[in-house]
Amino acid sequence: MLVGFKAENHPQQTGARGALDEVDDRGTEPEFVRSLEERFGEPFTLDVAAAPHNAKCDRFYTRADDGLKQSWSGERIWCNPPYSNLGDWLAKAWQEWPTTRGIVMLLPANRVEQKWWQEYVEPFRDRPESPLRVEFLPGRMRFIRPSAVIGPKGDRPPFGCCLLIWDAWGANAIARFMAAEGITT
Ligand SMILES: C[S@@+](CC[C@H](N)C(=O)[O-])C[C@H]1O[C@@H](n2cnc3c(N)ncnc32)[C@H](O)[C@@H]1O
User: Fold this and answer.
1) CA atoms within 13 A on the CB side of 88
2) Does any ligand 1 atom lie closer than 6 A to the CB of residue 92?
3) Ligand 1: does its nearest atom lie under 6 Å from the Cβ of 96?
4) Phi, psi of 135 (to 5 degrees)
5) What pLDDT digit, counting tens, does each position of 11-62 carry?
6) β-pairing, 161-166 with 132-136?
7) Using alpha carbons only, what angle is made at residue 109 by residues 29 and 168, rounded to the nearest 5 degrees?
8) Cα Rg, the chain, nearest whole Å
9) Which of 32, 34, 109, 171 could in theory staple to 160 by disulfide, Cβ–Cβ 3.0 to 4.6 A?
C-alpha cells in the first residue's frame, strides 16, 4: 500500500519549519513547462506546488492551500514539488492519478537510493502495465530562484533531473483504449 509513508529528508533541506524556502522555492523555467504541454498536446490545468511568483498555471495551490490536502481530480497536473518532503508528494500522486487527466512531476534524478524513490517509483516505473514512466533529462535544468545570485549559466543545481509521468494521454492510455475496444495492430 502506498499510504502512511514518511519521507526521510536530507538534513540540508530541512529547516525549523520542516522545509527551507530557499531550497524549496526552485521555479521551473516557463519555457520548459510550455514545451512539455506542446509535446503532450494540451496544457496543464493545475500547478499543485506553487507560489504566486512561480506558478506555471493560472490555477495553483500554495503552501497555505497545501496541495497535498487538495483534490487533483479532473486536472492535468504539473508538479515540481518542494524537495523537503518528496515522499509525501509521491504518495499523493499515486493516490490522485486515477482521477486526474495525467500528472507530470519534476524530480532530482540523483536520489534513486532513497526510500521515497525505492518505495514509490522503482517498483512501478516503466513496466508494461504501469501508468508511471520515468524520463531522465539531459544536462542540468536551469531553475529560477528570486533570492539567488545567478551566474551567466543560470541557477543550475549540481544534479540532473527526471520527469515522472503518470500517463493519461500517452502510450499507456492508447494501449488501454485499444485493448478495451478490442483493437489489434
Ligand atoms: C520547487 S518549487 C516549484 C515552483 C513552481 N510551481 C514551478 O514549477 O516552477 C515548489 C513550490 O511549492 C510550494 N509549496 C511548498 N509546500 C507546499 C504545499 N504543501 N502545497 C503547495 N505548494 C507548496 C513552495 O512554496 C514552492 O513555491
Assistant:
1) 16
2) no
3) no
4) -120, 125
5) 444 444 444 566 678 899 999 999 999 998 889 999 999 999 999 999 999 9
6) antiparallel
7) 70
8) 17
9) 109
Q: Which of 5, 2, 28, 10 is nearest to 163 (CA)?
A: 28
- Ligand 1 atom closest to residue 47's alpha carbon, by position in its atom list: 6
Closest CA to 111 of 90, 133, 86, 134: 86
Instruction: Write the class of the CATH domain 19-146+154-181.
Output: alpha beta
Structural domain spans, the chain: 19-146+154-181
**Distance from residue 41's CA to the centre of ligand 1 (Å):** 24
Beta bridge pairs of residue 60? 47
Rounded-to-integer distance, Cα 26 and Cα 18, Å: 16
Tell me how far the alpha carbon of residue 47 lies from the centroid of ligand 1, in angstroms: 9
The pLDDT tens digits for 70-103 are 999 999 999 999 999 999 999 999 999 989 999 9
Residue whose CA is at the smallest distance from ligand 1 atom 17: 63
Q: Is the CB of 161 under 6 A from ligand 1?
A: no
